[in-house]
Amino acid sequence: MRKIVNLMISTDPNGHGGIATVINGYSNDRFLVTNQIIHISSHSTVNSSKLRAMYLFFSCLMKVIYQGITSKIGIAHIHMASRGSYFRKAIVLRLCKLLGAKVILHLHGAEFQAFYNKESTKKKQEHICRTFDLADCVIVLSTQWMDWVQSIISKPSKVKVVYNAVPDLSLDRSQAVPSSILFLGRLGERKGVADLINAFKIVVETNPSATLLLGGDGELDEFKALAKSLGIEQNAKFLGWVAGVEKNKYLASADVYCLPSYNEGFPMGVLEAMSAGIVTVASTAGGIPDAITNEEEGLLITAGDVIALSDALIRVTSDRALNAKFVTAAKHKFDNNFSEKVVFAELDKIYAELLGS
């Protein structure tokens, strides 16, 4: 009898982005080892030339076939976003089903609903629905995403909410800098970076010592020019992409974490802020309201409302009691809902159900 192996197929965990962070979390917690999971990369954000991308995807297909021939694939856990990621993973999913695997489709794409509704023809929408129907379980990152996916799938009960998880960040916050506002993510329109810089201009008018730290790659020159045009270039620092020890250094020193996105799945940065003991100001996009309830664990604003964003940032930087209250509530919610212990237990349950069926 062939041995049973489980596969996890995703972007390269050594690259940038939320999915890479999620996969690294699985590895660090030994979730992959415990569940006898072999990870296979289908794509990478590192040196991603077209030729290398084609090679990596072809290599992924060959590795899946090899595992299907030499072993019995129990579960293929496929992490999917929109656009190119969707089309790659739609092929991988069908291959895994052909090889007799149970398939978990783990949806991450913050813009997947827009990809479906605005960028896809009727024929492409039907293809997406068939792909979801072929999966044995569809994991989404928030209740908002669950409602939408259930509306396009023939068996809504197969859709499960499993939140992202991050490690418990026990950082030394004794040197945190008051009125230091931290953003982490790709600098672009979807993340609301222009709104944040414009709101920060108002913050500086009331608190000239406030600082804005923007950690991430993307359209740096455009946003540096915006900060300069507003006269706040001395207060706004562009860090480039930060990860690992360097990222933890900024999390330890920040007073506020801000994410005014227009679209999100379930952002890792918000969870990291909750775990690290940093108050969050964010938009209501995607799964953020599942993590932060407005006026309970932080402050939420409507994406694009620059005045509301500036008001929220001024409140949490000036009212220290309110800041501390939100931090305590957010840490409690993190421990009970988003810690690795809690989230991985949910995944273990799904794996057991699929392998036992």
Question: In words, what does this structure look like?
Answer:
This protein has 2 domains: 4-165 and 339-356, Glycogen Phosphorylase B (Rossmann fold); 180-337, 3-Layer(aba) Sandwich (Rossmann fold). The protein is an alpha/beta fold. It is globular and about 70 Å long. 49% of the residues lie in helices and 18% in strands. Helix 3 runs parallel beside helix 4 (84-98). The strands form 2 sheets. A 6-stranded parallel beta sheet has the order 2-1-3-4-5-6, with helices on both faces. Strands 9-8-7-10-11-12 form a 6-stranded parallel beta sheet, sandwiched between helices. The protein is built from 15 helices and 12 strands. Strand 5, helix 7 (143-152) and strand 6 form a beta-alpha-beta unit.
Topology:
Blueprint: E1 4-11, H1 18-28, H2 31-34, E2 37-43, H3 50-70, E3 72-80, H4 84-98, E4 102-107, H5 112-118, H6 122-134, E5 137-140, H7 143-152, E6 159-161, E7 180-184, H8 193-206, E8 211-215, H9 220-229, E9 236-240, H10 244-253, E10 256-259, H11 268-276, E11 279-283, H12 288-291, E12 298-301, H13 306-318, H14 320-337, H15 340-356
Parallel strand pairs: 1-2, 1-3, 3-4, 4-5, 5-6, 7-8, 7-10, 8-9, 10-11, 11-12
Helix pairs in contact: 3-4, 8-13, 11-14
Q: What is the total tally of β strands?
A: 12
Oligomer: single chain
Strand content: 15-25%
The helix tally amounts to 15
Instruction: State the order of secondary-structure elements, H for helix, E for strand.
Output: EHHEHEHEHHEHEEHEHEHEHEHEHHH
CATH class of the largest domain: Alpha Beta
Rounded Rg: 21 Å
**Alpha-beta classification:** alpha/beta
Shape: globular
CATH architecture term of the largest domain: 3-Layer(aba) Sandwich
Provide the low-confidence segments as ranges.
none
